[in-house]
């Protein structure tokens, strides 16, 4: 058992993977690996959390200093779950998993956690409303991956053309 404990990683989630949100079943499914709720947390720096694409996907943009301190949840996960989530989050194509310190309380300080950040995005995403916390809503209903059309992958909504200078 101690070997399993050593291989656990802390993961901060602030979007559709949170408890009660559309993709939480992925964390709850033991077939994907181990995920155990640890605590609520907030980013230690302001980051823009936006809802974008025709599928209303929450994105945490890698643009420190903009937006709000974002509230989410920390889970202890094993490597198998991280691999599963890397696949879900298109880790190489859309998101990059990075370690950031998360604030877990005034007296408890911070803890380093893996978090999925959108690294490369069109500047127009910075014009969207910023959120401090995500919750699926009828105003912006999240479309789960298996219900999306292959004619319009989410990456298509995030593509942009850089202009030559």
| DSSP summary, beta strand count | 7
Structural class label = alpha+beta
Instruction: Specify the number of helices.
Output: 4
**Mean pLDDT over the residues:** 87
Shape category: globular
How does this model look, in words?
With 165 residues, the protein is of the alpha+beta class. 15% of the residues lie in helices and 30% in strands. It contains 4 helices and 7 strands. The strands form 2 sheets. The protein has a 5-stranded antiparallel beta sheet. The chain is globular and about 40 Å long. The termini are far apart. 26% of the residues are buried.
Features:
disordered C terminus; alpha+beta; 15% helix; 5-stranded antiparallel β-sheet; single chain; 4 helices; 165 residues
Briefly characterize the structure:
The protein has 165 residues and is of the alpha+beta class. It is built from four helices and seven strands.
């Amino acid at each position: 058992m101690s070997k399993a404990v050593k291989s656990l990683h802390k993961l901060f989630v602030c979007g559709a993977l949170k408890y009660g949100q559309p993709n939480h079943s992925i964390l709850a499914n033991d077939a994907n690996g181990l995920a155990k709720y640890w605590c609520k947390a907030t980013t230690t720096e302001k980051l823009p959390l936006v809802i974008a694409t025709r599928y209303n996907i929450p994105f945490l943009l890698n643009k420190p200093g903009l937006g709000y301190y974002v509230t989410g949840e920390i889970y202890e996960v094993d490597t198998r779950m991280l691999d599963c989530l890397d696949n879900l989050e298109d880790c190489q194509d859309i998101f990059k998993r990075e370690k950031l310190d998360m604030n877990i309380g005034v007296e408890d300080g911070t803890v380093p956690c893996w978090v999925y950040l959108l690294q490369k995005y069109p500047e127009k995403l910075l014009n969207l409303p910023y959120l401090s916390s995500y919750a699926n809503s009828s105003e912006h209903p999240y479309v789960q991956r298996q219900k999306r059309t292959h004619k319009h992958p989410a990456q298509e909504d995030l593509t942009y053309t850089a202009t030559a200078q």
